[in-house]
Amino acid sequence: MPNTATRSGPDAPPPAPPPAKAAARRPAASQLQRRGARLGWLFASPALLVIAAVLLFPIVFSVVMSFSNVDVTGSGIHLSGTTTGNYGILFDSPRWRHALYFTVLYTIGTVVVEIVLGTAIALVLERLKTGRGWMMALLLMPWAMITVISAQLWAYIYNGVYGVLNSVLHPLIGHDVNVLGTPVEAAVAMAAADIWKTTPFVAIIVLAGLVMLPGDIVEAARIDGASAWTTFWQVRLPLLRPTLAIAVMFRILQAFGLFDLPFVLTNGGPGTSTESLAVLGYRVLFTDLKFGPGAAVATSTAVLVLLGCLLFLKVFRAQVGTEEN
Q1: Which residue of 66, 67, 151, 237 pairs with 295 in a disulfide if CB–CB is 3.0 to 4.6 A?
Q2: C-beta separation of 109 from 191 below 8 A
Q3: Residues of the chain with pLDDT > 70: what percent?
Q4: Which residues pair with 72 in a beta bridge?
Q5: Span 203-226, pLDDT tens digits
């Protein structure tokens, strides 16, 4: 057997560094990494300061205002003392309870429909061999449209005098149709406009998850004789749950903070039937000029969204852990 230790020539491996030199290189490398990290934080500090000023300051000021006595004078807003009376006014208000009930029900209904439709659209797009790029571009047009503009377009469709929906249904039923004039129909019409706009967002996220699924597992299920339906429910859907969880999280955050669509489409009406928590907070703050209760509405809404997302993540992780065990 040839002795590899004495091998020389161009194919010979380089000699290993002495242990002392290798140990000396590691502290030098870690010191260089720390220096690079400090330099990175230094370059990022202006952007972080701007984010803190734009994002964190309004949040902290809103929380402080919600626990303060707020006096509005000609010279501005003055905070004095500490109180929980703003939240007492909030919790005793039937208007706030109705806005909370409507926002929660609206969020659950729209998110469930969007997840189902978005997953179905993603499955169709996945099977397309040609034209997938064009279909995705067309699919993203509603999502790319500004919500205020799409809400105004849907308001023209729903108009009870010259709207497209009224023009279609009037010859069939014999009278004008004003879906925005009654509470239930207005809520359903607003949910339909929201689903039309945001389902493409869910479909793109689910499609990305479908593309990333390991093909060997799906192929093994098909070889074992599983049908397409069985493969989806027992193989692909469990693997898609992290992707679906991300889509649900984004949609809960967006739907619970709903403002522009009801503000433009229904203005919270008829009456206050489609008034979300965001619209209620806006009206209390800027219409009624009750800054303390308005800040309490904003703070309580943010806390409810945070608790809802944490609860959803806890349930999701528990379910995934049970399946893995």
Answers
A1: 66
A2: yes
A3: 89
A4: 77
A5: 999 998 988 888 788 788 778 777
